[in-house]
Sequence to fold (261 residues):
Amino acid sequence: MCPRLLIVLYVFLAIPSFLLAQSQPASDPQALSYAAQSIAAMTGGSSISDVTLTGSVSWNAGADSGTATLQALGTGESRMDLVLTSGTRSEIRDAQTGAAIGQWINPDTSSGQFASQNCQTDAVWFFLPLGSLAVSQNVVLLNIGQTTWNGTAVQHIQSYIFQSNWPAGVTPTAQQLSTMDFYLDASTLLPVAVTFNAHPDSDASTNLSFEVDFTNYQAVSGVQVPMHIQRFQQGSLMVDLTLSGASFNSGLSLSNFTISQ
Fold:
């Protein structure tokens, strides 16, 4: 064997095994097809850069109520403002700095930032064309198969964010923290539900289940909008939205989503 080849082989063998395993897995072709068809079914083929949804809201299984405004810009910026009888409650997600961060604001004006483990799933949980179904370069999609959701036949696909720089041996992994499960109506491929996990601020290993259900789709400016959105936490209904309006590509400003650190 020639000396040059020996040197190349030596260098290759000297690379730690965890560095050799950093290439992004390929998405399942069937999952990619379902995701593309779902996006087309929702948007009618239109390109959407921002969205504003408005309507009424019931908070915490009817403990409070009021009006809601939900906004999103691209896939990294979102905010939900609920004007309740007790005051305004807000949730904001911001990725302008290149790192996903989040903030909550309670009706009593107390506020805090989301733990990093709670900023790994989609920022725009309420309007799925601006999420993982759109398949950015780091998203991996898996086809789980057909099943039923609340009696409806659905196609189940799963997404996660591949992070090549995630430290080896650190758990939970980036895949575990970013996994989302999408349930698409088997006939229309419109989303019926999405599920994912959040975590206590001090314990990324403990899962808190979240579920978002989408019903009563109606066409607004050629876009299929679920006029009823419900978000559950650990099986309890926390956000019950009945939408009355939706607008797209209105030119929302990044400043709407800025979080000061």
